[in-house]
Amino acid sequence: MDAVQKITSLCKRRGFVFQSSEIYGGWEAAYDFGPLGAEMLRNIRNLWWKEFVHKQPNIVGLDSAIISHPRVWEASGHVESFADAMVEDIKNNKRYRADHIIGEYFEKKNGEEFNADGMSLEELDILIAENNILSPDGNKLSKARKFNSLVEVSIGTLEDAKATAYLRGETCQPIFYNYALVRDSMRMKIPFGIAQIGKAFRNEIKVGPFFFRTREFEQMEMELYVHPSDAENQMAKLKSWAIDWLVSLGIPEDKLRLRDQDFKERAHYNKIATDVEYRFPFGWKEFQGLHYRSDWDLSRHAEFSGTNLDYTDPVTGEKYVPHVVEYSIGLNRLMLVLLFDAYVEEEERVVLKLHPDIAPYRYAVFPLLKNKPELVDKARLIYNTLVTKGYNVAWDDRGNIGKRYYSQDEIGTPYCITVDFQTLEDETVTIRDRDTASQRRLRIDELG
């Protein structure tokens, strides 16, 4: 069983992630996050918001609508330019991203990464023809053509009067069109930022592995509005900040790298684009982007809406359209990074060595025997005390203690607390460390 299969199996078995609509046969590239997955996502969201909003005096939050006015996506360039190059298996009509098909071919052939992202349709066709690249099923491929990734929806109460709109393809556009409203209502001065966590939707051609690339996903984004002369300085700071925060979650720095995109790879709005990549078992893959978007977004929304989005410096009186430095990270991809990074197989157990602030449960409480009311009552009292202190706590009285420990190891619970007969005598409990499996006695009033 390879690494992806192991993580997939654990996630289903332990209630982290389920295939969406599984009882109907499943739905491609759609996943539901189970009880433990929901807790883990909530912990990541809270940590990110604390770091990038609550700790920052010049950054505020936003929670915007998923469906915006259709003109938003025309102004942003997505209706015209938000497209990937697609090729089709001419026998079974399966569709693939052309750059992925080519990249996988050359990686298998030469053992090295090959980046075809940003190539023209003609360049892709030539590479496929000259190297006789076939589909994964061994069939010939069609000519490359553009495939727009925006997801269309129909809005309206009358069937013959419905308007075409789009599910947001990225969470940042509402941050741009709300820029002046936030600036004025919160009395913000340049430089300042607006952050948001929310769902986005893309009609991806290629999906997987597991929930790495899906058509519905969640982003954590921050747009920093800056003076044009300060943009590259802010970009450099953002790179360091991004890596430092990821390392604080327990991700080893040697499994992270920054990779600057080539000109052809960059989205139409980016002057500088840097990917943050993680070394997965299936290769280096991007899960975060840091971008210098210049004044593209505000200038376009000003043009298409007829609204003046200039900023006037309150000290110098200088007027200018702010430039934007962007931090964008996929919440779901970050969760997958953390799961892969934490997964450890030891002689007798599987352990998820998650950071305590990310693990679904901080503690698990066990009565040594579930048929002894005095032990159960004492354990319940400790459980309730820890919950009152704000911790998420697991209760487990099934089977023997050893099996309970291994069960909690597999879901990443950092500390297990066992209430035994000595607890009744001296108000101490056994606390076991997940990572080392070491145990020690601790007074109840020292917990938490």
Give a structural overview.
This protein has helices at residues 3-14, 35-54, 70-75, 78-81, 98-110, 121-130, 172-177, 179-186, 231-248, 296-305, 331-342, 373-388, 401-411, 421-426, and strands spanning 17-19, 31-33, 59-62, 83-88, 95-97, 145-148, 151-155, 163-167, 192-201, 216-226, 256-260, 272-280, 283-294, 311-312, 319-320, 323-330, 343-345, 350-352, 363-367, 393-395, 415-419, 428-433, 439-443. The protein is an alpha+beta fold and 448 residues long. The chain has three domains: 3-70 and 152-343, 2-Layer Sandwich (BirA Bifunctional Protein, domain 2); 87-98 and 103-148, no CATH class; 361-446, Anticodon-binding domain (Rossmann fold), CATH 3.40.50.800. The model has no long low-confidence stretch (mean pLDDT 92). Its EC number is 6.1.1.14.
Provide the CATH topology of the largest domain.
Answer: BirA Bifunctional Protein, domain 2
Note the gap between the termini.
Answer: 38 Å
In CATH, the architecture of the largest domain is 2-Layer Sandwich
| Spatial strand sequence of the major β-sheet | 3-9-10-16-13-12-11
At the fourth level of CATH, the homologous superfamily of the largest domain is Bira Bifunctional Protein, Domain 2
Beta-strand proportion: 25-35%
Report the total helices.
Answer: 14
Average residue-wise pLDDT = 92
Largest sheet: 7 strands, mixed
Fraction of residues in H or I helices: 25-40%
